[in-house]
Structure formats: structure tokens, C-alpha cells
Amino acid sequence: MERFELIVIGAGPAGLSAAIEAASCGMSVIVFDENTRPGGQLFKQIHKFFGSKEHKAKERGFNIGKNLLNEAEELGVRVELDSTVMGIFRNKEISVMKNDSVKHFKGNSIVIATGASENMVPFKGWTLPGVIGAGAAQTMMNIHGIKPGNRVLMVGSGNVGLVVGYQLIQAGCILEAIIDAAPRVGGYGVHAAKLARIGVPFYMSHTIKLAQGIDRVEGAIIVEVDKSWKPVSGSEKTLEVDTICIAVGLSPMSQLVRLAGCKTLDDPKKGGIVPLCNEYGETSISGIYAAGDVAGIEEASSAMIQGKIAGAAASKDQGYISEDEFKARQKKLENSLLQLREGMFGHKSTAQVTHTDEGYELSHSLLKKGYISDTELSHYPGIPTEDDLKDGLVPVIECTQNIPCNPCQDACPKGCIKVGDNITNLPSIETSVKCSGCGMCVVSCSGQAIFLVKQNHSPGYGLVSLPYEFSPLPDVGDIGYALDRLGNVVSKAEVISIKKTPVMDETAVLTMKVPSNLTMKARFFKPAMKEEKII
Amino acid sequence: MINAEVIIVGGGVIGSSIAHYLAKNKVDVLVLEKNDIGSGASSRNGGGIRQSARDLREMPLAIHAVKNLWPYLSEELGVDVEYHQKGNLRLAKNNQHLKVLEKIVEHGQSVGLDLKMIDGDQVKELCPFVSHEVIGASYCATDGHGNPMTTTLGFYKRARELGARFITGESVKSLIIKKGKISGVKTLENIYEAPIVIVASGLESRSIANTAGIDLPMQKVMLEALITEDQSPMFSQMIGTAASDFYGHQTEHGSFVFGGMTGLEPFDSQEENAVTRNIAAPSICRAILGYFPFFENVKIIRTWSGFLDEMVDHVPVISKVEEVPGLILACGFSGHGYGISPAVGQLIAQMIVEGQPSISLEAFKYDRFKPRV
Amino acid sequence: MSKIIGRALKKDDFVEMPDDHIIICRCEEITKGEIRRAIYEGMYTMNEIKRYLRVGMGLCQGQTCNKLVKAIVAKELGLDMKDIEIPIPRSPARPIAMKAYADDGYMR
Questions:
Q1: Tally of structural domains, chain A
Q2: Pair A499, A414 in one domain
Q3: Do A153 and A266 fall within a single domain?
Q4: Is residue A351 part of a domain?
Q5: DSSP letter at C4?
Q6: A105 touching C (Cβ < 8 Å)
Q7: Contact B279/C97, CB-based, under 8 Å?
């Protein structure tokens, strides 16, 4: 039986990070993953991450995965793919199935980083083909290049629902609606706004009543729910969809933790059954650690830090780093983790937040409909005043919730954007500094919430620069439509410039010409259909 | 303080069966179970309902159960116990195996059991899926199998409907003796009183009986089992081997349940909890494939393990304890209690209600174990 | 340690609900109504429901339906979700062909 100093189960962000940390301390490490590709969910995450530089903010998930894997391999970590861990047995033995045989391995320490699985919501017809998990839809699109359907209903407005909803549109699907039984959008407002401005309707306080169809989904009936989650009769709406995507949360994949005999608890805030862990992620069984979603549902960014802490702790246990060295590493990582857990979406916040930390009232319209209404917009520190707008080119930062994220601050070469030390602060703009119009802030914002606006470009017309991530890219000179924040056509628009360089990492900055009075309304460019005449 | 006429310690298949037959006779019975109903060996066994290859002492109970109780049990309980009487095949691959089986057959025939030796071709006829290496088998046409989980829960459900009371999560720690007689039991938090206490707690019976000064030569042995994905109906016999390396059958659901050992028991199975070992399932799979190559690509869905309460002579204790009036023991079933569970329940109920069971239980006395002279 | 639960019979008759036909365990195709009835018949724990109905015994081993069944048990018995234990998971974590399992290096 082969024996390693550390066995890591799961080559996702948490597992790879644990392996890297331990290997960098000198341990012999093996990582098992049942998938053909390493990286866990990172490899299907094509969106840019939030956080700060140390959290790999504004990098796309799959690139983070690639880098982690390279780092692990350079450090001599053995990564075994297509290898399913069947169980964890006494004396830290595991059985691994690979190809057509089983091998037994023993570890001095084990890090369990098995991630999460998708929750389902039962309704009439939920077992029909065409009802799929949002994560499954993401796998189909981003790993296998398959469109999950044509007309899709997204059930759940958390970040998974919003992000996957956006990717469905990028893949060419029509997102008919996003619904959620909760009265307000669960995920980041900036993710919701990306969908609303393309015209996706948000139905909060709505649940799915049934999926229509005999052999597969042919439609969905949604219904409003009252404050006690009871359906309101007569409020049914029929949606013509062929696919229903379920994004109602994740559950930790705690089977191996429980098989190993670790003590667990059911913690609704962590998504379900999780191992009882100390501050380093060590379970009730000495030498067995849990990191990432399996220890409580969070983001990949925090999973990476948790993995590092576990890897460092195992290194300390086995004498590769001193107690002091460990404490120093752990403290730094802990601070980084705490930053991510700050803000209105952090797992510490329980109450229904009504105001930002700075005291700004949250946009009701954003929470209810997915976009910030015109009247609410001017409240926030990233929005220029009427006077600012008269001065020429200005950034408009429609970031109105305390999210742990600050790349915009470093993006502006002129220092025009300020977030401050606390990375959940709302960004504010310094209008005394002249904006050069480079667009780096626009592409740096993982929430695509930064725009450049020039009210007076030519008589009666202004310019709006926006992040654009759809293909094909329009050409300069193309005429299309300008859409407002809720996806309504407000005017025709002409593409004035398209900027896309390698450093922008696939996000283009599209500048369109719209009537001056619409520069603070128009937020998306919709290309005209082929042969379509725009009047 | 809760009073009942009879307290049963243990809500497994034996305890629930006794509760059912007592409740059916209008006896006020209270069952105390430490975990869930049927959480011990009762829901972790292979489901065999056989008479063949049993100790002669158990034979009358097994024959009675198969003849008079099992065929009517689903109807009586209102729960499908999935009883199928399609025979038991004990397979042999070599002459040594045949010799083992001949002894078993001789043994069974001596008490009139319909048990015989058949050759390789006859085995193939009954069960076409066996390997060509199989050269013969013992065959008992009246043996069969059932679903131990629905049987246990069926006894529980029906007993409950008939007025038996069950409390789960109650861990009995000791027996209470007052004025020379049993007066009840003590759990972690409570005292329950009854003039009769039946200990049917499997492996834990020993420590409970110890609190009344009674010891039993019993040890713990871990057995493991596995279940496959469902298959279309293939064969309905209960399968065993002369080498005793695995056993199993196809369930009504279509999946196969197989059990077996690694050969390292009981020395490799002294953990506190019944947790599977990484070497056990592969070992059982090898044994199965040795007789049924067909299963090569059939997938295992789940494995589990359970402790047997094994008596030194592999025969249970089903006995009044005369020196502690009111105490009855029903334990030590040594891995083959499921098949006789309805008979045990019925006979103990008779013992209590009528003073005498209709089949003698003398051979199962608690004090039968004597040292070598 | 398990919680102490008395198993007294319910006084009222079993009441059917309009959504009883919805499938909860999709591997074994078991409906909400079947689960509710099992609880009514005395199956008060997740393990008992599993053994009685095969809920969670299918290919996914309950990863999908455990939460759903738990919610039904909580509602029917008036318990807090977190006080309800789910069945212990069993090895193998994924279905595995017998041939592969048999070949674990201990073969001659």
C-alpha cells in the first residue's frame, strides 16, 4: 500500500491550494479527483472573480484553476485524475477506483475537499428531462460546449443562478425569466443588473408550480407566493420554455467526511451537514481536515484560503514548519478569509440588510427587479453628479452593495477610483482627476458595473462605454439599439469604438453613441438582426 | 415511571416479533430501543430464510417458521416482507466442498428436511448463471429469502397498531431486581417497571444480562454485505457456498444482496462501531465472481457492516432465567436469527401467555454452556 | 445518542394532501404521499423511512433527496430540521463495477 504524508481528496480550489501549501513546506502529497480535469468547479467558471489581488480578483475561474494546477505540479504534487475515492477507512486508509481497479492508499494526514452538490426543489414534473441543475447547465456549456436548451427558466436568484443565467445568454439561449421564492434577489446586485439590462425579467416571491410536458419540458407555470410562502391563487403565469434550470443552493458533499466517522452538525448557514472543525479545518478525527464547500458553502476564493490553512496545519503537525511559522501563515490567511466574509453577503450577516455599511439605502428596485431605478441611482458614491457629467468623460460606478472586491481601485492609472482599506466599501469617484478614457476600470470590474459616460460628444449626442462579453463582437459603425437598465430599447445606437487587448482578458469595451439625454440611461448595446433596418 | 406487563429491551427483528405476538395476545408490552427500530443486525443481514445447514437444535423452529408463519406473514403484518420460497443452493467447486455438503444434507435429511445433493448440470438448470466450475450443490427447495428491513418494520408497525408501545432512543443500562424478582429496567434517564423483562438486544444483551449476574459466552463478529444496482430478474434462489465465502440473493427490487467475510474475523473486527473495512467488499466481490462471472460489470451501490452476537456454539439463547424470576433472554442468534424470528416471537409469547411454548425451547437454555471435563 | 421518541399511534386519520403525488426520491421514484404515509405508520426516523420505502437507496444514495425527506419529516412530526439525523452514508461513494472492486491488489 502506498503511503503519503498528505492525501488530498478533490482537486478543486480548496484541495489544490492545500496540496500546494503542504508541498511547498516539503510534504509528499497526492491529490485524487474523480473528474477528468482538475480544478473542480473552477474549470467551468468563465466569469471574473471578486475579491482583492491576493484573492485572485478579476481573474477568470478557469485560469485560476490552470495556475493552481501548474503550481502544484511544479512542487511535485502527484495529481491522480479519473480517480474516485470510494471511502475513508480506519487508520486514514482510502480506497481509490481508477480505470478498472481499486487501490488502497494510506495518509498521515487527509484533507477532504470534495465540494458540494446542487440542491433540488420538488415540483410536479421536476423529474422530466429538461429540468437540470444550474451547475449541470454550466458544465454542458463551458466544458462540453453544448447548449442546454433554447428557452430557459432559471429558478433561484443567488449568484449561481445569476452567473449561469448570464452564461446561458452568452451561449445563445433565451433566458425567459429568473424567479425566486424569496422577496429579494439573493445574489450580488451587479450580477442581477447584467441580466436585467439585457431584458431578463425578475420575478421575486415566485415559485415554480409545475413543469409542463409529457416526455420532456415544454413549459413551466410559475406562481406568486405570499409572505408565508403560500401560493397566491390566480397569480399563475405560463412560460414557454424547454429547459428549467434549478439554482436553489448547494449542499456540502459530506459523505466521505461522515464515512470517515468525523463528527458533523447540520448548519443551515453552511448549507447542510458539515464536519465539526477547529479553526484550522481539522475535524474531530485528528489529522483529517476539511476545506472548501464541504466544510460550509462559500465561494472558491475562500475555499482556496481554507485549503492553504489546512495544508499549513498538516505541515505543522508533521514537523515541516514550526508552530511559530504556522501561526504567522495562519494569521495572514485568516485575515484574508475574514475580508471575504465581510459585507452584506458575508456568512456572518443574518439580518435583512437595508443599508450599506456607509449608510446608503439599498436599491429596492435592484433587490426586487434586478436593476437600479433612475431615482435611486444618484444616491451612491460611484455616480457622478449632473455637474460632473457636464465636464466631459467620467466613470460611472453602479456598485451599490458591500461586496468584498476592489480591483477597480488599482485599475485606474490616474487614481480616480477609491475603495479604501476595507475591500467591501463602495467605490467612490474622484472627479477632480481627469479620466483618460482608457477603459481599464470597465474591464476590471467583475460585476461589469463600471461605465464611462461622455454627455456631450457631438451636438445632441453623447457616448457610453460599456463592458461587452458577447460574440460576435459588433464592428465599429454598426447600428443597433441602446437598452436601458431594465432592457428596454431607448434609442438607436452606433458603435463608435471597440477596444479589446490581451490585458482586458476577453472583456471588450464597447463605446456607443446615443442621444445626450440618454447617456445615464443606456447601459447595453443590442446589435440589430441581420438585414434589419433601423430607423 | 412507566408500567407495562412486559418490557422488551431491543427493537430489532426479534424484539419486534415478540412485541407483535404479545400484543396480538393483548399483553401490555413496552419496547425500549436504543437507536432506530431495526438498526442493529436486523437491518444488516442477508435476508436468508433457511432450514438447511442449521444446528439440529434450531431445526424445529426453522421448519415451523417456514411451514406455518412465513407464508402468511406479509398478510398478517400488512407490510410486504418480500418472502420468496424458491430454494437454497449451496454451491461446490471441488470434492472437498462436496464432502462438506454431503454432511449438511445427511444432517438435514435426518430430521426430514427436503434437502438433497444435485450435480453441476442440475445446478445449471436451476440457476443458469453459475460458473462452469460449479460441480454440484446441496439444494433445499423449501428454503427462501425475505426482506429483513420490511420484516422488522412490519412487526413494529403491526405491533404498534395492536397496542404495543415503543420508545426509541432509550438505552437500557441495567436490569432492576426487587425482592428477588425482576421489577424493570433503568435507562440513562428513566426507570421503567414491569414484572417481566425480555432482553433481545443482540450483542448488548450480554452486558445487560450481566447487571442481573448472568453471563453468556458471546462474542462480537463483524460481517459485511453489499448491494448491487438493480438487474432484471435472474434467479430467485438463496445462494450460499460450501466454502462459506459469500451468500446472497436477488431482491424483489432487482438488486442483489451479497454478504461475506474476509477470513480475518473476528480478530479484524473489534471496533466500537460497525464500520466497513476497505478490504471486505473487494474480498466478497472476488468470492462472488468465482461462482458468478456474470456479475463482472454489475455495479455495487452500497456496502454495510454489522455485528453478530455469536454464541460459542452458534446457537441462540431463548430462555427463561429461573434464578432471576421474570427475566427472559432472546439473544445470541449468531447471524441466523432472521429466518426463525417469527417462530421466536410466537414461542416466547406462548411462554408468557400460556406458560409453555408449543415447541420446546429447552435446547436454548442460558445455562447450557459447560466447561470441558 | 439518539433522541428519545415515543411511538404512540396518531389519533387522527391519515390526511391526503394535494401535492402528495410529487416525486421526492427520483432514483427510486417515491412520492411525498408515500413518505407521509410511512411516517404516519410509525417510521419516525430517516433510517426507518429509508428501510421501509427505499428512499435514498438508489444511485445517488440520498445526496439529492435527504434534504427533501428531512423537510417532510420535520413538518409531519413538528421537529426542527437540524435535530433529524440523516442515514449514514456507505462506501462506495460512487457505484463501482464488481470486477473493478475485486481487483484491489490482493488478488493472486
A1: 3
A2: yes
A3: no
A4: no
A5: P
A6: no
A7: no
